[in-house]
Amino acid sequence: MSVLQILDVGLALLVLAVAVWTIAAREIFGAVVGYVAYGLLLSLVWIRLFAPDVALTEAAIGSGVTGVLLVTSGARLKGAGKASAAAKPSLSLRLSAAALSLLAAAALAGVILALPDPGPTLAPEARQHLAATGLGNPVTAVLIAWRSFDTMLEKIVLALAVVGVWSVASDLYWGGAPAPLGRANPQGALLLLEQTLVPLGILVGVHIFWVGADAPGGAFQAGAILAAMWMIVMIARVSEPPPVNSRWLRLALVAGPAVFIVAGLAGLGMAGYFFAYPDGFAKPIILFIEAFMLLTIAATLPVLVAGPPRRSFRP
Amino acid sequence: MTPSTLAGLVGAALVGLGLYGLIVNPQPLRKILAFNLIGSGVFLVFGIVARKGAAAGFPFDPVPQAMVITGIVVAFAASALAVALILRLHEETGQVLLDEENPASLPTQEGAGK
């Protein structure tokens, strides 16, 4: 066994151990911290699968932003967790759940071991047409050029999620701002973190967006990093979550899908079908769309974390 | 065993673990966590499919990878919506359990803000 193989097995065991912890931990806070660590370990697994784009997304959104969401909502539910400890499921339910889970995992493992190698692939097509997009990163090309319809619909899903989250607000607070993300008096370390990390983080985010055309990175990963920076600013209480009827916020939330649809319609007019990019202009159009996607992702993720409005609207 | 097969088996185990947590944990927030474990397990299975599609000089098939990136973002959006519903349920009833044997704990007046 080489060193790399030992590391692979160790990493796999570590991922599974942390996953068991997130299920078995007694306190919700412990489980969420475990989940954040789990996401970071999982992004290492993605690196080993030659998927640096996915690794960046998993670390930023799957682990980071989801972690913040669960930590803040866990804090808002504090005290309610105690009562539920009594409602432990019966042994027979746990045993049958374990049997069912084992069966599902074993069936999936069987399928994975039976996968053909090499499997069916679209990589040759990607190689053949990559030059036409002017991009160097095939994953970005799939997201914004060849399967642009998926990516556009996904932006619309994000907008729908915002509508869903806002619509559980009580009538009293409609138009107001969500509850603050941080405590009333942020401590020195948090403010220092805000002052030192946020400028750097914004630079890193813009860099990852820019290199995404040719290297691992892109609008999703960069948007999540910028979103994280905005959330740090809000947790440090340097700025507050904006009220839901703020016009600039709503514009930022719909800019990505709107520009995407306009670009698709322009393709229909200029090149004959929806989302066709005219020859020679593919890369500038793709970067233009991505810039607005970046804005929308960076605005949407913190809005989803902040939740529905909880303070009345003061005009 | 190649690293990608190992990762695929980890994915299968994660689906099993998440399914168990989803059924057994009574707290909705823990159910969301477990559901995310299932999701990341499924994504890892996509990862091994992408890796096995290595061809034409790419060490992976970019299409499944791009779908996983889209999937991670959508999974987050779904989690955020679920969390908002749980917090609202808690605000209305003070309950955080999905107790179907005790429907009296559910709000009776719809949309009545406290």
Please sum up the structure shown.
The complex is a heterodimer of chains A (315) and B (114). Helix content of chain A is 72%, strand content 0%.
What does this entry look like structurally?
Chain A has helices at 3-24, 28-48, 52-76, 80-84, 91-113, 123-133, 138-146, 148-167, 188-211, 219-235, 247-271, 282-306. Chain A has 12 helices and no strands. Chain A has a domain at 137-315. Chain B is mainly alpha-helical and 114 residues long. Chain B contains 3 helices and no strands. Chain B has helices at residues 3-24, 28-52, 62-93. Helices cover 69% and strands 0% of the residues of chain B. Mean pLDDT of chain B is 82; it is low at 103-114. The longest helix of chain B is centred in the C-terminal third of the chain and has 32 residues, at 62-93. Chain B has a single domain (3-95), classed as Helix Hairpins, CATH 1.10.287.3510. The chains are: A mainly alpha (315), B mainly alpha (114). Chains A and B meet through helix 1, helix 2, helix 3, helix 4 and helix 5 of A and helix 1, helix 2 and helix 3 of B.
Question: What topology does this entry show?
Answer:
The complex is a heterodimer of chains A (315) and B (114).
Chain A: H1 3-24, H2 28-48, H3 52-76, H4 80-84, H5 91-113, H6 123-133, H7 138-146, H8 148-167, H9 188-211, H10 219-235, H11 247-271, H12 282-306
Helix pairs in contact in A: 1-2, 2-3, 3-10, 3-12, 6-7, 7-8, 8-11, 8-12, 9-10, 10-12, 11-12
Chain B: H1 3-24, H2 28-52, H3 62-93
Helix pairs in contact in B: 1-2, 2-3
List keywords for this structure.
heterodimer; A: 315 residues; mainly alpha; 12 helices; globular; B: 114 residues; Helix Hairpins; 3 helices; disordered C terminus
